[in-house]
Write a structure and sequence with these properties.
This protein is α+β, with helices and mostly antiparallel strands. The protein is 42% helix and 19% strand. The protein has a four-stranded antiparallel β-sheet, with no helix packed on it.
Length: 197
């Protein structure tokens, strides 16, 4: 019996060692998995950090581009406004220097086209500087000193670059006058403004 008990004790110890070895192996396996997960986590954090740095760099670049676009928009705004003021697209009364630029305008006209250059907006007869009833093409020079321009049934008017014989100017004071009395000093031809990058 002693021999059987010794064998039983030895077997129990062997089984205990086997269980302990298995548990140790399982624990080492888990530790290896945790270590691998830690390594993967560190690698992901490094990748995220690199990506974040890349995004920060990209954001800085986008901020610079946005600021540059803002400056360009501000630089173009006066030119766009001047270009918009270089045409008259519908009937109405237009204030010179605010709604439209002074200069020579042309329309293909229409039946019953009426235009009027005015020194005021009171509606008094004395405000009329010049006017006309056209049944076709019309060319009118609006002076910088004019207060308003009225158009009815004329279609669209477009700013024209005009050149007159014997004159150095592009835009005379009056279509009927061949002498140059008005040249919009320092103004560009708004119909030919180029958008620069």
């Amino acid at each position: 019996m002693v021999a059987g008990a010794a064998l039983g004790t030895a077997a129990a110890k062997a089984t205990e060692r086997d269980v302990l070895a298995e548990r140790t192996a399982a624990l080492e396996q888990r530790e290896a998995e945790v270590a691998q997960r830690d390594t993967n986590t560190v690698q992901r954090e490094d990748a995220l950090s690199l990506r974040s740095d890349g995004l920060d760099t990209r954001q800085t670049e986008l901020d610079k581009i946005s600021a540059d676009l803002g400056r360009r928009e501000q630089a173009l705004l006066p030119k766009e406004q001047a270009a918009a003021r270089s045409k008259i697209t519908k009937d109405g009364i237009y204030l010179v220097g605010k709604d439209i630029e002074p200069g020579t305008y042309q329309t293909s006209g229409g039946s019953g086209c009426y235009w009027q250059r005015s020194s005021g907006t009171s509606g008094d007869f004395d405000d009329i500087l010049a006017n006309g009833n056209e049944s076709g093409q019309a060319i009118v020079t609006i002076a910088a000193s004019d207060v308003a321009f009225t158009t009815k049934r004329c279609g669209s008017w477009h700013w024209q670059r005009m050149s007159w014989p014997g004159s150095e100017c592009r835009t005379p004071m009056s279509f009927c006058s061949a002498r140059c009395e008005h040249e919009p000093s320092g103004r560009e031809d708004p119909s030919t403004l180029e958008l620069q990058e």
